[in-house]
Amino acid sequence: MVFSVASFGRYCIFSRRAFSKPEKWKMFFKRTLLEISKLGIDSIPLVIIISLFIGAVCAIQMQLNVTSPLMPSYTVGLATREIILLEFSNSILCLILAGKVGSNIASEIGTMRVTEQIDALDIMGINSCSYLVLPKIVGFVLFMPVLVVFCQVTSLFGGYTVALVSDIISVTKYTYGLQMFFNEWYIWYGIIKATVFAYIIASVSSFFGYYVKGGALEVGKASTNAVVISSIAILLFDVILTKLLLQ
């Protein structure tokens, strides 16, 4: 499916259907908790592993490339912190999660479409779009701030580990750099961006999965398209939100 103007209009109609009032609130909350566990909690190990290595690599690269005597010794910790808070813990993290969570959502809903489970829900008079999609969007958006905080803390700890186990940079200089010129707004900035990106991932992936036509091959193509379009949308909104939130 080529994402054209017609597809965007279809996506808007799809979003309106998805955000209609749940028919049974008890079932909605139950499915939302299930999606939080499946999409959010199950992503924590991946987030921790990636963040540890990225934080370590950022600290090493900064130390190796910041060699000017005019630069203060705490620059490595400060620069690592800014990179993590401003970009990695939101934009890069969500690009990674678009591959894991986005493909999962698209393939799950797409499989239900090709096996006619969604048609069965429609025949029973259930709003299949709201029933399947809304818990995924709400669950992932609600849990995304937790993943962002995990990423921020773990990444900074990854840089601290490098300082602790090697002689590239001293622990004192690194921790001092982490505290210098700290701006609390950067944490909220990352959470706001990641929350918007979480909505993009969940809604776009659900859209591509919901309108699959064909068989298993088309489900795979829908998953690929969902990841690609979600990634492009994340990069686009990254520019827009950076301009709006950091003016």
What is the structure about, briefly put?
The protein is mostly helical. 82% of the residues lie in helices and 0% in strands.
Protein model, in words:
The chain is an all-alpha fold and 247 residues long. It contains 9 helices and no strands. The longest helix is centred in the middle third of the chain and has 40 residues, at 75-114. The two termini are 37 Å apart. The protein has helices spanning 5-18, 25-40, 44-65, 75-114, 117-123, 128-165, 171-179, 185-210, 216-245.
SSE string:
HHHHHHHHH
Oligomer: single chain
Q: How much is the radius of gyration in Å?
A: 21 Å
Computed structural class: mainly alpha
What integer is the average pLDDT? Answer: 90
Give the number of DSSP strands.
0
How does the major sheet shape up?
Answer: none
By DSSP (H or I, 4+ residues per run), the number of helices equals 9
Relative helix content: over 70%
Task: Return residue spans where pLDDT drops below 50 for at least 5 consecutive residues.
Answer: none
Distance between the termini: 37 Å
